């Protein structure tokens, strides 16, 4: 296996690293017999140090895999500055330990960066810490085993989403982060204005508003790439974007972030929301299967299992039917549901729970509570062809709809949105029906990895009053 990796590099015409430093993933994951007896150089951070009678045992990790490598050094070496948390480089021979795993018998260890564990380093080996405790040290959190597993699983999931779309012939489009539109119309925008001294001075001189000077219009951080994606879908047919989106919601809940990544897809030439739901279900199940399979060691060290719904068909029901279920369960819910409003988190979670924890697509929503761009249902003008996917523990994970493609109907909904004339114009030239969806990436990670708090799904979470680090 190990030599196969080298072979692959050579095939790609890439140079095998000269310094002969190998990653833990190359050494531990391949579990290769060929590497045994070879001299290797490794580098990483120390998880734990055990001083025994003749030898010092050091567990190190470079973060490339969930596994650590045990380095064994004769005690005759003077290594006063070696402690957990320090960074080291070790050189020696790879051998098989009595338990069958690979270890490095080092004759040389260099401490690259010391770690004074008495001077505030917040983690000690083999100690369990709560997520809240670890979250206080965002800059050191990647050093913990669980969080480094999370980061690798996040990477794997993100790559798997890219592969899924490629296999399904979707084209990746980078939609802008800076925009002048509020796609969702909910006003949850962060506004952007320049703060360069030079520009500020010019603005003052010219007496122009700070907010509108730079772009000639107000600018915001995007809440969704959908509108731009609709423009590209009317040329490339099947497109997706996967990038950061921002919502100025005043919520510190375990399910909200001010900055989150969203996977959004848009498909042209479709005429039913059912096609969108089929795509969402396939995406979620394919990516989850892939992560469960390829990420097994990290899922194990992270302490999570394959989600129970993975092999079950997702339920589909209308808003009206979901509402009836809520109405019939007033006692359990304490508060009666109000028809024509969005479901509360409690109601969303209840609906999934009573469905044996199988995800539910809720369709045919009252038009008043959904954004302007959604298309009316064919058989009921008071409802829109939209869906929300509700999943266990998280509630709403995906939202999507057929888009209003009738020029006149859309125009009547746009009077207050003069800056969206370009969006309306899409319905004028070679118009086609489109539909699409958006899935919050962090909520997806929460649901497949069983993470209770969304702040533990990405390295540097942003939420109200928290943007210092
Ligand atoms: N692309 C989408 O359909 C997502 C939708 N704009 C939302 O933010 O919920």
Automatic annotation (TrEMBL):
PROSITE patterns tied to this protein: AA_TRNA_LIGASE_II
One GO CC term, this protein: mitochondrion
UniProt key word Protein biosynthesis: yes
Record key words, sorted: Aminoacyl-tRNA synthetase, ATP-binding, Ligase, Nucleotide-binding, Protein biosynthesis
Alphabetical list of Pfam families matching this protein: tRNA-synt_2, tRNA_anti-codon
Enzyme class of the recorded protein, top EC level: ligase
InterPro entries in the cross-refs: Aa-tRNA-synt_II (IPR004364), aa-tRNA-synth_II (IPR006195), aa-tRNA-synth_II/BPL/LPL (IPR045864), Asn-tRNA-ligase (IPR004522), Asp/Asn-tRNA-synth_IIb (IPR002312), NA-bd_OB-fold (IPR012340), NA-bd_OB_tRNA (IPR004365)
GO biological process, one term: asparaginyl-tRNA aminoacylation
EC numbers for this chain: 6.1.1.22
GO molecular function: asparagine-tRNA ligase activity; ATP binding; nucleic acid binding
Limits of the Aminoacyl-transfer RNA synthetases class-II family profile domain: 163-459
Record-stated family: Belongs to the class-II aminoacyl-tRNA synthetase family.
NCBIfam families xref list: asnS, PRK03932.1
Name used for this protein in its record: asparagine--tRNA ligase
Organism whose genome encodes this protein: Dufourea novaeangliae
């Amino acid at each position: 296996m190990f030599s196969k990796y080298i072979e692959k590099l050579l095939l790609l015409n890439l140079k095998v690293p000269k310094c002969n430093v190998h990653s833990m993933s190359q050494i531990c994951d391949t579990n290769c017999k060929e590497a045994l007896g070879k001299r290797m150089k490794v580098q990483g951070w120390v998880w734990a140090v055990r001083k025994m009678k003749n030898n010092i045992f050091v567990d190190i990790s470079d973060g490339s895999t969930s596994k650590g490598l045990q380095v064994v050094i004769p005690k005759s070496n003077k290594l006063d500055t070696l402690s957990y948390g320090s960074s080291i480089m070790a050189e020696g021979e790879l051998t098989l330990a009595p338990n069958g795993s690979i270890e490095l018998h080092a004759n040389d260890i260099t401490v690259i960066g010391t770690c004074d564990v008495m001077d505030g380093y917040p983690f000690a080996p083999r100690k369990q810490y709560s997520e809240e405790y670890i979250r206080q040290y965002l800059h050191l959190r990647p050093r913990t085993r669980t969080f480094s597993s999370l980061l690798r699983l996040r990477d794997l999931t993100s790559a798997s989403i890219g592969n899924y779309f490629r296999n399904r012939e979707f084209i990746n489009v980078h939609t802008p982060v800076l925009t002048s539109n509020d796609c969702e119309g909910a006003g949850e925008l962060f506004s952007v204005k320049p703060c360069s001294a030079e520009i500020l001075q010019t603005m003052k001189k010219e007496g122009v508003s700070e907010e509108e000077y730079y772009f000639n219009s107000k600018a915001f951080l995007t809440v969704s790439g959908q509108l731009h994606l609709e423009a590209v879908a009317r040329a490339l047919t099947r497109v997706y974007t996967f990038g950061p989106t921002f919502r100025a919601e005043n919520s510190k809940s375990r399910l909200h972030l001010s900055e989150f990544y969203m996977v959004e897809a848009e498909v042209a030439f479709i005429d039913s929301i059912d096609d969108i739901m089929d795509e969402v279900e396939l995406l979620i199940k394919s990516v989850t299967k892939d992560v469960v399979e390829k990420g097994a060691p990290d899922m194990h060290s992270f302490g999570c299992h394959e989600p129970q719904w993975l092999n079950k068909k997702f339920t589909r029901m209308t808003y009206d039917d979901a509402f009836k279920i809520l109405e019939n369960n007033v006692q359990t819910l304490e508060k009666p549901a109000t028809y024509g409003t969005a479901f509360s988190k409690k109601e969303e979670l209840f609906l999934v729970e009573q469905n044996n924890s199988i995800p539910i697509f809720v369709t045919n929503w009252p038009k008043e509570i959904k954004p302007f761009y959604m298309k009316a249902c064919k058989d009921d003008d008071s409802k829109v062809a939209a869906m929300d996917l509700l999943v266990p523990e998280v509630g709403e994970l995906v939202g999507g709809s057929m888009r209003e493609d009738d020029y006149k109907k859309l125009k009547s909904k746009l009077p207050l949105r003069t800056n969206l004339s370009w969006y309306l114009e899409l319905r004028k030239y070679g118009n086609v029906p489109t539909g699409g969806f958006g899935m919050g990436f962090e909520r997806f990670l929460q649901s497949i990895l069983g993470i209770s708090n969304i702040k533990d799904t990405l390295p540097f979470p942003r939420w109200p009053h928290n943007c210092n680090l």
